[in-house]
Amino acid sequence: MLTCKNIKFLNWKQYMNMIPAIAQHYISGEILMFGYMSPEALNNTIERKLFTLFSRKKNRLWVKGENSKNFLHVKKIITDCDYDVILVKVKPSGNTCHLNRFSCFKSAEPIYSFILKLQSIIKLRKKENSKKSYISNLFSLGNHRIAQKVGEESIEIIIAFLEKNSVNIINESSDLLFHLLILLQSVNIDFESIILNLKNRSHK
Q1: Which helix (H) or strand (E) element contains residue 106?
Q2: Sheet of 86-92: strands edge to edge?
Q3: Which of 69, 37, 77 is nearest to 53 (CA)?
Q4: Are 91 and 75 in contact (CB under 8 A)?
Q5: Cβ neighbours of residue 179 closer than 8 Å, sequence gap 6 or more
Q6: Which of 81, 82, 88, 135 is the most interior residue, by most CB within 10 Å?
Q7: 124 - beta bridge partners?
Q8: Are 116 and 27 in contact (CB under 8 A)?
Q9: Where is this region: Phosphoribosyl-ATP pyrophosphohydrolase (predicted)?
Q10: pLDDT tens profile 106-164
Q11: C-alpha–C-alpha distance, residues 43 and 2, integer Å
């Protein structure tokens, strides 16, 4: 893990006192964006735990999300074997790309990262409280209704399983996962916490 004390060992001469920085989702592994950091930008990234680049266009430090509020919260910073590139594992608070996409590298998107996108949509609908949105309406009906929907979908997937209906198993599993994400957001738990919990259990 890089710290403010050991960044001097990086190969700053390779790119004229800059170092390439890759932002990677700390759970899915998806590459979100790329840029260059000056020593000051890297220090800011480490100290504030917010992905910060040096903008050559603006000639100043640029904190990703300073305008959109879609910050990249830093979880871990590692370097490559030659100490001339850094990989920053981050947790995004919204879409990363200025085109309102989850990642700046759309074609490199892992299929399972869609769950994280869906989670972002659910968070947004929770805040919006729109009558036209199924998700918003479900939140407005309260936790008992959300729990009821998860229970209903659980029963339906059991029925599909016992009937050995593969198509229905897929459809009902999708419904269950969707409503489980809503349930988790109703108590402010991100799906990443579930993945990390499973990962930690696998080491036991």
Answers
A1: none
A2: 31-37, 19-25, 86-92, 72-79
A3: 37
A4: yes
A5: 146, 149, 150, 153
A6: 88
A7: none
A8: yes
A9: 115-204
A10: 765 667 778 888 998 999 999 887 888 999 999 999 999 999 999 999 999 999 999 99
A11: 10
Closest CA to 150 of 184, 116, 123: 184
Q: Which residue has the tokens 């930008």?
A: 41
Please tell me the CATH superfamily of domain 112-202, with its number: MazG-like (1.10.287.1080)
Nearest to 184 by CA among 134, 140, 139: 139
Sorted by where each begins, the domain ranges of the chain are 7-92, 112-202
Residue 49: phi and psi, rounded to 5, are 60, 35
- Predicted model pTM: 0.69
Superfamily (CATH) of domain 7-92: Phosphoribosyl-AMP cyclohydrolase (3.10.20.810)
